[in-house]
Amino acid sequence: MTDGLETGVDNPRRSNLRPFYQKESFIKSPFKLISNLRNYKYLVRNLVNRDLNQKYNNALLGYVWTLLEPALLASVYYVLFIIIANHSEPNYPMLVLIGVIGWGMFSRILNGTVNSLTANSGMIKQSNIPMEVYSFSLAATQLVITTLSMLIVVPFMVQLEIAPTVNLWMLPLSIISLMITAWGFGLIFASANVMFPDVAHLFRFITKAGFFVSPVMWTYEMLIDRAGSDSIYFDIAMLNPVVIPLTCMRHSIEGTTPSFEHIHLIYAIIFPLISYIIGSIVFTKYSRGVVTRL
Amino acid sequence: MKLEQVVLDYPKKESIVHFLKRKLGFILGKKSKSPHFRALNQIDLTINKGEVIGIIGRNGSSKSTLLKAMAGIYQPTEGEVVMDGDISLLSGVGLGMNKNLSGRENIHLYGSILGHSRTTMDSLTEEIIQFSELHEFIDEPLRTYSSGMKARLGISVATAVKPDILLIDEVLGVGDPGFKKRSQERIRRMMDDSNTVVIVSHSFGLLKDICDRMIMMEKGSIKIIGTPDDVIAKYHEIEG
User: Do B205 and B140 share a domain, yes or no?
Assistant: First the structure.
């Protein structure tokens, strides 16, 4: 065998011999994930396009389902709540609706990301696309659907005579923070799910139970009313990373300013960042190694 | 491209009891490896720039696994794969194509799965449609296509760009004889542009025509490496 690796005379520009899987410091992982996604942004776009098409193709009402689905769900919860609580505020149906939309996005991204390697095993075993592309495009699809779903609050705002205020800036921010939390947290467990499918079962349970301990049917203000802001239950409930983003979503629509304790606010800002950083490190380290197990 | 002492182990299914036992043993200081199957065994290979390599071997001799290790899909358990330039793997033509999208949308989707940018795909679309001869159907959803038409579209996209290193896994024999001939011509043209090509195939006739060197795989190891005539002759000798 001749060693002809230096014979790249016709294209000297490209003689950059590099090993796959360079041992890189884990500190680089969060940046590496972003640069990979930037390199493959056209693919992400096409995958989002494909998934949206898949969801709405052949459906008689098409995009109307994006609005109808959360609305129908919310009306069921609303009726249920009136029966249980025996009273209601005029804003309450809209608040439940926003909760349903926000929580729905969070749980779908979380479950989807945990399952992203097993669900795309066919593609992963046949192409060398960076594997974070699959879960990210799923998250981006959910982001588009959520944005479209949020339009359903407009008729509620008209009916309740709520004018949009500057507080609306919180809306995109809290939706994106929910997305990053779910995606980052899911990335931590995606590789483990290949080894042990139990992980996905566990997450399905967590998101089902999480529905009740998250402010979907209840609100942050109800929590303070009932539990009191100095009770242990309140502190435990505030460990849930979705409480503040969901509450912010509601206040941004209502045009009111939420009042949080500083410590909780800092927690809400740090949680998505830490999830993403840990998620990207764990995913970069383990995801390629589990391909032979798919 | 260079493979140095590449070893790849496929893990075998392990019961949870077994797994826990092994982990317990690990804690107690007994080291035992997880059950595995050695798919690639000490592969040493240097592929020169511009060379065309054919890989043959029986089913299950790890031909495709070798190709996937080269493409970076499988991370070697031991050893290293060293790369020069961008790499493109054609495996399962039309990977990721969607039946509800139109042919045109699928060109873009499949192209981006192969790692091409938007500008590349925009500039190539017309040429791809031309080559696939699917003008009248290109804006129809893919579910209306016959399997031959789908394969034609896939091949047309896959062979439209010229990567530095092209890895092909059993995708040449599709379409009617006319298209087959044209696509083989096109692949030959890709190779002429001084690209490095590695092909896994069972069609010896084709390999003999285009390869500079051939490799015969057996049970995860390189059994024979040499000129096409030699390797094919020896293959027939061994396999009878």
Answer: no
